[in-house]
Design a protein that fits this description.
Blueprint (H helix, E strand, L loop, with lengths): L1 E6 L2 E2 L5 E8 L9 E7 L6 E6 L5 E3 L7 E6 L4 E6 L8 E8 L2 H5 L5 E2 L3 E5 L2
Parallel strand pairs: 2-11
Antiparallel strand pairs: 1-3, 3-8, 4-5, 4-9, 5-6, 7-8, 9-10, 9-11
């Protein structure tokens, strides 16, 4: 299994962050895995943002729920993250990740990781 993510790395405050993750080797509609987004701000620990399950059900970190949207494109075996109204506090390395248990990703862990995308929010 491999995850490959991409998206714009430099944003201005109030813009929307958009990242996409392609999954290779695991069909997202049939998988036992949860597909998630996790970020790590500079000098801080990993923060779970949310996840999407094989049935399309979406799970959010309550602290980010109002600004976070997670979706999928089953025809491309991809899932995506949108984070609205970004501020400099959203500067972080963003990872797409997979885990068999929702509790794993909710704790900032995963079985498989994307390569990470540095996102910087600055005016």
């Amino acid at each position: 299994v491999q995850l490959q993510e991409w998206g714009h790395g430099l944003l201005k405050p109030s813009q929307t962050l958009s990242l996409t993750c392609a999954v290779y080797g695991d069909p997202i509609t049939a998988s036992v895995y949860y597909y998630s987004w996790i970020r790590q701000p500079p000098g801080k620990g990993l923060e779970y943002m949310g996840a999407i399950a094989r049935d399309g059900g979406v799970y959010h970190n309550p602290s980010l729920k109002s600004r976070t949207s997670i979706s999928r494109d089953t025809s491309k075996n991809q899932f995506s993250l949108q984070l609205t109204s970004v501020t400099p506090e959203d500067t972080a390395v963003y990872y797409c990740a997979m885990a068999r248990e929702l509790s794993t990703v909710a704790g900032g862990g995963a079985d498989y990781w994307g390569q990470g995308t540095q996102v910087t929010v600055s005016s």
